[in-house]
Amino acid sequence: MLTVGLCDRWLPSLQAGSSVLQSPVFTKQPGSIVYPVETLERNKEVVFSCEAQGSPPPSYRWKLNGTEISSKYGSHYILSGGNLRISRLNKDQDAGTYQCLASNSFGTIVSREASLTFAYLENFKTQRRSSVSVREGQGVVLLCGPPPHSGDLVFSWIFNEYPTFVKQDTRRFISQETGNLYIAKVEPSDVGNYTCVVTNTVTKTRVQGPPTPLVLRSDGVMGEYEPKIEVQFPEFVHVAKGSTVKLECFALGNPVPSINWRRVDGVSFSRKVDTRKASGVLEIPYFQQEDAGTYECVAENSRGMNTVKGKLSFYAPPQLIEKPRDVQKLIDDSLVWECKATGKPKPSYRWMKNGENLEPSEERIQVANGALSISRLTLSDTGMYQCVAGNKHGEAYSNAELRVIAVAPDFSQNQLKSQTLVKAGGDALIECKPKMSPWGVVSWRKGSDPLRESNRISILANGSLRIWNATKSDAGLYTCIARNQFGVASSTGTLSVKEPTIITTPPSTLDVTVGESMVLPCQVSHDPSLELKFTWFFNEQLIHFGSHGGFFEKVGGHSAGDIMIRNIQLRHAGKYTCAVQTKVDSISIALDLIVRGPPGPPTSVHVEEIIDTTASLSWRPGPDNHSPITAYTIQARTPFSLGWQAVTTVPEVVAGHQLRATVTELSPWVEYEFRVLASNTIGTGEPSKPSKQARTKGTYPKVTPANVSGGGGSRSELVITWEVIPEEFQNGPGFGYVVAFRPHGATGWMQAAVPSAEASRYVFKNESIQPFSPFHVKVGVYNNEGEGPFGPVTTIYSAEEEPGRAPTRVRAKSLSASEIEVSWKALPWSVSKRRVLGFEVRYWSRSEKEDMASVQRTVGNQTSTVIRGVKGSTTYYISVRAYNTAGTGPPSNTVNVTTKKPPPSQPPAKVMWNTSDSKIILNWERVKALENESEVTGYKVLYKKNRHSHPNVMETNTTSVELALPTDEDYIIQIKPFGEGGDGSSSKQITIPRIPVTVAL
């Protein structure tokens, strides 16, 4: 490959393969210098540093105030490497702006600007200053008037003689802007001489002005007056990003004013501002955008208030955020370099080439919004470019190199494709992309013959070859030849013409029912040398086999892309596309799938009219899902129903073409919701959304209370009870009950209204009511719509009196340590109106009070009972009373009984057993009762065949027993002692295994 370079200066080095070439890049740039004039006599030399890397090594030049420094500037400018040394300094001639230029064979770059300034401080003029005469209590300003100077100054004041300096406080303030001394309110101790001291922070020199005498006037003391702000900060202050700004504010006044600061926008000061120090000076360090705004100083005393405002605006020098980079371009190519910077105010941009400003004088060179564009590049465009972003607060520089090169044709990076495939009848494009600059001529050969263009064959402007409507005869070897004035190159590839792929399955519409499975066909014919790829889409969305709930499955072979859809649902209806792809072509076919299923839910269910027991409904049909709707079903739901229930309609069967129906047999005054379901020959679909709630109109109640009964209560009362009518049968608001009753034999009814739907009881009280008198009773219903019917008549007795006599001949006997038998003589079952329903036995121990007695009741005319669960060896007191619904009668005489001693607490020990001739012989030790236990009178042997069978009991007064043992099962045995106190503790269970059967031979 032949490469023509930027210029002759670096081309030989590149061809010779010597050191790597590099454009100049600054590694050190000059910085600004402030030079003290006072040292000129001792040292009259400064040095600006400049250093750049590059290959070949850069050479250097310097500019002063934009003009290149040459011999005419004199011999005191000495260039040492890249550094500029200035000797025999002259503050009038050498002050200014300096820039370093570094150049090599690639071009020139310019450094940032650096200034040289001279700092000095002259002496005060020695003329005497007049006295300042003020009243006590008056404010005063003593002027400093600093002498000519350059560089920052610091001011202080001497009071009378050195080293007594004025101390600043809320009453005295020294402005570092003007140097003046301010005393808010003069006191007698302030009388004396004041001398202004000025210090240059650069030269460190200090000078003193002439003293100013301060004297008090003798014509009285100054009265109080409001603050007068003498020290003010500017109305507009521009503050650099990251710098520290100090605002001064001080006022004269009597009393001495206080100084406070605030932001006009109400935003509080950030933590970096120390407000404790902000008396006469507000200091804001590290100034940022959010610190910008209007600040106000408030001076205040008891006589009034005064304020001054100033706006701080934020500015920032340019800072590059997008820089151009070195590029290498071919001749006739185009270049676009972006350059962007931040800054406030918004930076402007200029471009430099090889150290000189680039003026867009040609149509092909444009600069817009910092971007540099050059079209149709030539070798002369080669060089070093610099983007300079600037505002009034500074400039930022960025360097980039442009190399424009010329290249002979080269295919090493872009060979022709070894094989290009095309289907017969299709269009073939063989790309030819040689690298060459400038662009030359491209020609083609097929085999060894030059290729001529025709109406089917064309060589495009970019060198590629286009063949339309390819045939088998177009197959073969093709060569692209590229040439320009620097050389020739070629590249070769093959064109193969394949049979086209054809889908043999015609487009169609398929019909299927929900739940069935179906195969969607996709059959093709194709060139056997090409691989096929089948892809399916459903409504233009790719089908991912293995997902979608497992409904889709590939079932096609090598030349078929058939798929099966299993358990088809309504959502599977739509357009299916089979796409077939080979390396040379791609085709597709669309199939429409119709899925028939139960109808979708009806819509817009509306209650047209509703009365007490009927409602008229209308609705709109939902989708029939490709099977006509044959019928509708209506369901209803109320707050009292368990879910949705089918309702009776007129017509009884709602046909598919009907969109209205009347629901009957509704309950009055009940809130209903209705929904509609549609059916077709396939099935019943999902229900509609419920209608809005609608309440049936009210009517008089028709359901009477059930289980009317009563009785009991207090003397002279008739108690009547019934079951509450559920809300769904109350038929309207204002529901209540009507209770009618009369004594047996009477003809007229007495009535009472019970105005509560929740009531279930009515009590009629009258002193004339005889105990246990029969009444005829019936209960009816009513609501705001009217009265309903009465229920059937039933007989209820009035309250009875408690029994009037006590049982007699009460006897008590201890059966064991835990049981007492009580007996008595019964009262007649019914004596006059005082029935006896049973007897109540009360018992309590000697350590208990009678009102804490336990109670045991009997039913009917029973004359004895057994009390169980009492304690052994304990005396109990017992009384008996008769009872009925009115309560208990008088108690019998109290009797007492002492329970027997507790049974033995020790279980039988050392239980032994052996077997002999299908028998078991048990032996155990005798149990001895303790002193407080009843004597052992015998033993109970409990035995059973298994854990779940009922035990048999054998009693004995000895300590051994013989039992017949079956041979087919195990035996489980327990032994416990007993005495007159009852059964004692049992031994542990003993399991005796079954006896094996011996078979005689």
TrEMBL record:
Subcellular location as annotated: Cell membrane
A molecular function GO annotation: cell-cell adhesion mediator activity
Biased composition (Polar residues): 889-899
Subunit relationships: Interacts with PTPRG.
Disulfide bond in keyword set: yes
Start and end residues of each Fibronectin type-III domain: 601-699, 704-801, 806-902, 903-998
Disordered as annotated region, ranges: 684-709, 889-909
Organism of provenance: Takifugu rubripes
Gene Ontology CC terms: axon; plasma membrane; side of membrane
Protein family per UniProt: Belongs to the immunoglobulin superfamily. Contactin family.
Membrane topology: Lipid-anchor; GPI-anchor
GO BP term, example: brain development
InterPro entries for the chain: FN3_dom (IPR003961), FN3_sf (IPR036116), Ig-like_dom (IPR007110), Ig-like_dom_sf (IPR036179), Ig-like_fold (IPR013783), Ig_I-set (IPR013098), Ig_sub (IPR003599), Ig_sub2 (IPR003598)
Domain Ig-like span(s) in chain numbering: 24-117, 122-208, 227-313, 318-403, 409-496, 500-588
Entry protein name: Contactin 4
Source domain of life: Eukaryota
UniProt cross-references to PROSITE patterns, sorted A to Z: FN3, IG_LIKE
Keywords: Cell adhesion, Cell membrane, Disulfide bond, Glycoprotein, GPI-anchor, Immunoglobulin domain, Lipoprotein, Membrane, Repeat, Signal
Predominant place of localization: membrane
Xref: Pfam families: fn3, I-set, Ig_3
